[in-house]
Amino acid sequence: MTIEANRFLVRLKECKKIAAVKKPKQLELAVKYKDRLSGVFILTGNINLIKKYVELLRKEGLPTFVHIEKIKGLSNDKDGLDYIESFVKPTGIVTTKPSLIAAAKKRKLLTVQRIFMIDTEIIENLPELLEKNRPDIIEIMPARIPEIIQEIKEYTDNIPLITGGLLTEKQHAIKAIEHGAVAVSTSNVQVWKMDLTRELQFL
Predict the structure, then answer these.
(1) Which of 5, 8, 107, 122 has an alpha carbon within 20 to 30 A of 59's alpha carbon?
(2) HEC per residue, 60-107
(3) pTM of structure
(4) Confidence band, pLDDT 50/70/90 cuts, at residue 203
């Protein structure tokens, strides 16, 4: 694992928040609150702009991940990963496609596997999924089902769990972390501003 990847994992435990950037104008806000963020997930842009976005954030010391399926014009395959590794150069990728995990790790990209908890079958198939393609981090969506986090931790063999989606207030984030999430990812700028570590100390 690279030095930058290790630094992100440390920040994940310290700050407990990842900024999910869905609009270009949020990039400046992520920079503004960089000392309270573990890193950034980029969920916007296109093949012509993504390198610029990544460079801006990494220059500010923010570990940066590209959600490969959200970038317009970028193929969701090994060719797309080659482009990301050699040209864009983020810390890692976020993907919903298990097949991309092993290929990304070969390219020394930190991997976040995003999983949508739509039914119990997802949980039942999780051990097989992780055995075939072991990501560095698992992101459970949505965040408003904290009880599921505890259940999933039994299958993940110490892979760090984060959660995101539908986080509209501080208590949603705190509850997710209390139930076992290492951190939360959110596009809610109000949550970016919070010092969750301090909030958790006073509970």
Answers:
(1) 107
(2) CCCCEEEEHHHCECCCCCHHHHHHHHHHHCCCEEEECCCHHHHHHHHC
(3) 0.91
(4) very low
